[in-house]
Amino acid sequence: MTDVTWSSLSAEGLHEHAQAPERVAELLRGAISAGTIRPGSKLPEVELTRQLDISRHTLRSGFQILASEGLVERHPNRGVFVHQPTAADVVEVYRVRRVLEVGAVRTADFPPEELEQLHRIVSAAELARERGDIPAMAQANQVFHRTIAAQVRSAMIDALMEQVLARMRLAFYAKSEQPSFHHTYIVRNRELARLLSQGDRAAAEAYLLSYLDAAEAELLEHLDS
Q1: I need a labelling partner for 24 at 20 to 30 A (CA). Which of 11, 43, 76, 207 fits?
Q2: Can you tell me the distance from the alpha carbon of 11 to that of 65, in angstroms, rounded to the nearest whole number?
Q3: Side-chain half-sphere exposure of 85, counting CA atoms within 13 A
């Protein structure tokens, strides 16, 4: 089901204190967002408690946080598994993305240094494509959209976007080995960065809406096939 090397998860800062469950959830959410943990993977309690040097209670509390975000689910007598995305999940994720990202494009300030950062992210994705590094292409797409939402300068928006990115990665996972799939997003991100740099917010907003509509339709078509 999974080839995760659980020892690669860093236990730094994960000790028995009030915020430990939140830190556990943050760590596992990040691994899901990075594509390290796949949809359907079992999360082994014994191995994770040993690797992270935490109690089973703390780990299970972290699982509960992730379950409330729709990222994991407990199967009776089997354990906790990373969620397998459905069509309803895709629709929900894109509904939220239209609010978060389109809202950011419409209302947030995009300083010159942040616009330059968007172009650097696209350039990094293009370099990753040239060397055939699909994980780096996927990660660049995540960073690009995280950067868009971050321009709102809201910790609450940032936290919600992290949940969205993790659920996006689960939905994208089935396409993760197709370079052409990721290249499509590089092209779209480049155009969005160009429109934002030109200061044409109306065009950027319209483009992002069409971008998200197309991406949602592509994922739904894949799930139906």
Answers
A1: 76
A2: 18
A3: 27
70 and 167 Cβ atoms separated by less than 8 Å? yes
Domain CATH number, residue 193: 1.20.120.530
Query: By C-alpha distance, which of 141, 122, 121, 125 is closest to 133?
Result: 125
pLDDT digits (tens, 9 = 90+) for 61-117: 999 999 998 899 999 989 999 998 899 999 999 999 999 999 999 999 999 999 999
Q: What is the mean pLDDT of the chain?
A: 89
Q: Which residues, 6+ apart, have CB-to-CB distance to 110 below 8 Å?
A: 151, 196
Claim to verify: residue 220 and residue 180 sit in the same structural domain: yes
pTM of the predicted structure, to 2 decimals: 0.80
Domain that holds residue 11: 6-82
DSSP state letters, 110-156: --HHHHHHHHHHHHHHHHHHHTT-HHHHHHHHHHHHHHHHHTT--HH
Grouping H, G, I as helix, E, B as strand and the rest as coil, residue 173 is helix
**Domain-embedded: residue 1:** no
Q: Are residues 104 and 205 in the same domain?
A: yes
Confirm if 43 and 28 have CB atoms less than 8 A apart: yes
